[in-house]
Amino acid sequence: MILTLVEGVGAPVDPEDIVYYRHETRFDNGQLVDLSETRKVPEKFPMNDPHYHDFLRVAFMQMRKNQIAFIKVSEAAHKKIYHNSNLSH
Fold it and tell me: Model pTM greater than 0.70?
């Protein structure tokens, strides 16, 4: 699920683009999972790199430059990413 806070401009992301993004991880109640996860420096996401998470690729393909959005990841996708995590909610 993508909830747009600020609309982006221009063409949608291309499958060959490199996307730079910032993120923080929160529980459903809004609590920040880990303060060290509040990113000030954008992370790099090569859209055509198969080692990155598909859910981010799908979300980014729906976005435009400078769009600000909440992206909610399903519990099933979350478990695939953090299957060894000791975090609980």
Answer: no
